[in-house]
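Fold this complex.
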Amino acid sequence: MDRFVWASGLLELEETLVIQQRGVRVYDGEEKVRFDSGVLLLSTHRLLWRDQKNHECCIALPLSQIVFIEEQAAGIGKSAKIVVHLHPASSNKEPGPFQSSKYSYIKLSFKEHGQIEFYRRLSEEITQRRWENVPAAQTIQVNKSPQAGRIRAVGIVGIERKLEEKRKETDKNISEAKDMVELSKSIANKIKEKQGDITEDETIRFKSYLLSMGIANPVTRETYGSGTHYHMQLAKQLAGILQTPLEERGGIMSLTEVYCMVNRARGLELLSPEDLVNACKMLESLKLPLRLRIFDSGVMVIELQSHNEEEMVASALETVSEKGSLTADEFAKLVGMSVLLAKERLLLAEKMGHLCRDDSVEGLRFYPNLFMTQS
Amino acid sequence: MSFAWPWQYSFPPFFTLQPNGDTRRKQLAAWCALVLGYCRWQRLHAMTVREAHDGPLFANQRLQRKLPLEAVQVVLEELRKQGNLEWLDKNKSSFLIMWKRPEEWGKLIYQWVSKNGLTNSVFTLYELTSGDDTENEEFHGLDESMLLRALQALQQEHKAEIITLDDGRGVKFF
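Structure:
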């Protein structure tokens, strides 16, 4: 505890707050001290503790004093703790609450939890040593013990050196990016002009760039070369899979239903939503027996070519007229459709002028459009 | 005799502004006719939007339906475009409802004047709108500004002349 100094609790210029936690008790080694209930603050430079009952009482410890930290799990009746092992205090240290201590470590007890996150952040700060990049104030105690091989960069020279390193790295990134951009442009042009195949060499280079960026190898697309061809094959596949299910469902299915059904069938090589939509967009142009339809609301469905939604509207009108009025739920139940598709049908009927709506706190109901039929 | 509400007034969709364009046109036409009919029956010449919105005109208690305020404003705007409504203030909080246009009022007043052999007489504006003689006339209680416009219309036709009297204005019929 003798490494602590009295502090104002204010952060210095360049010093940033990382995390804070209430309800922390400080121990000098194994012994309880009077600092029993406070807010523990971690900054880029220091560890501060402020008494919750008396805000004027605030102590601080430079992070450079820390050798290493350990976690101590919570027990019955005991809060989780962080044990902070410290370097000896320097002789010209500012005044603090303790002149001496028989321990070379302190413990921080987290009575209101928060220990896990605090430990993580404290580890980070100790590893990153951000206080070395930008010395906050003259009173910061610099670590006295030697550290193998590291060039401590402090002061203006240190800052300049760090900037130089960063500049070099950025230059490297930019030159890599330039290569990447050239390559993708060439590939894009080739695709556009449909000029032969992309060379194996280019493909390999491209893949390695993607991998270095962390993008997984797009295996399935590979088999078919460019994306569009892939979607064409997929569209044909879909037509095969969906014909019977569509017939069983009155000729229409929402795209979400299709997505689930198709992926369930594929098992491992799952289809992404984008790939499904792109494939479905090609159905009509490929003259396949199904088509993608997008309603005004944005809802997307797959219909059999033979399906005529407008005709279904006429029958919907009959159903609604018989019952006087219907909600989408009621209609869905009556007809044996999904509520989503039932609503789309009713909305289409409204758009065509056969139905009108009654929108109130009781819900949305559809009525035959008497405005048009009755004088 | 109680007011004869139109069939739409008992039709719940009447109280929801219809999204379909054609349907909406029919709906608004019905609302405009209802507003004019109702105000005429009540002999209302001016109203505030709040009064209108809170009254039986736009809310059917039995049906538990009320036309939302934004839709009421659409109806009022429709009436304004037709020439049957005028805003009395910039905030559009109160309005004149003209179930008869000024020329129509003028004609009615002149009919009463000639029927009673009162041409060549002078009347104060007050006498016309609030006098005992006109109690059973439709123009009884007419808003003064409306009356003036009606008389101006007659003036155009040389059937009347608006004059200034000691304590206000009046009109002479020819």
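The interface with chain A takes residues 7-8, 11-13, 15-16, 18-20, 22-23, 26-27, 30, 64-65 of chain B (CB under 8 Å).
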